Amino acid sequence: MSGEHLSTVDNGAVAMAAEQRSAGVPDLVARRRRRRGAVWAVRLAAVVVWLVGWQLTATYWIDPFYYSKPTAIWSRLVGWFSHGTAFGSIWTQIAVTLEEAVFGFAIGAVAGVVLGIVLGRARFLAEVAAPFIKAANAVPRIVLASLFIIWFGLGMSSKVATAMVLVFFAVFFNAFQGAREVDRNLVDNARILGASRISVLRTIVVPSATSWIFASLHSAFGFALIGAVVGEFTGADKGLGLLINNAQGTFDSAGIYAGMIVVTVLALVAEWLISTAEKRLLRWRPPAASADVQT
User: What GO terms in the biological process aspect are recorded for it (predicted)?
Assistant: First the structure.
């Protein structure tokens, strides 16, 4: 068989394979859409069953004074957003808690990333700091919230500090592990080629640890909200934590659930924003490395 004939056969096989791949793309997209639709359908069905079951149980079997029921919680939410709360507009309470959480998240995330990467690459410093970090992480957060109230007063600073502490440890340990997991061969090759420590850190260590860092950020904003709400529980004149604490003091279970729902919605919106940023910043990752159920 001549070389020209072999070349023609090879080109035909390549073209056929490319044709098959391009034909399979719409099927793959359709399957993913069907799967996503099925996931959302099951989620919606689970929520409906749960709410209906809760409503019926609270109506016929349990005391709604203690456990509330979905219709009462919905009425409380409508009242808050229509007529405000006992402490002013619900939007003011949301804005205060969100501001505290965002500042705490930003400060805690930056501090956690920087210290995590530095200690992850400096073994001696990591061994020196290890017992102190473990001891600080073991302190109950509610104790720190009380201490921050004494230090910084009832204003925003004490809530930001509480949120920052929760976020810091969530991010720090992931950044530390991500810096430790960097491929040693890449670092050695870069140094052989004359790269400085800063260059290695900037071009190899930080990009390699980014996946670890983003994995912690998904839960870190939830921790920031928890920190802000816990701080408001300890002492505040505004915020969602104040609303929930007031509802607890008046045995208003519907108010507690309503406050929880607002906090949950804020956390889900933040999760969506972080996921969107992750997709844009980590496009260089192979698809298999980031394969996940996307919603």
Answer: transmembrane transport
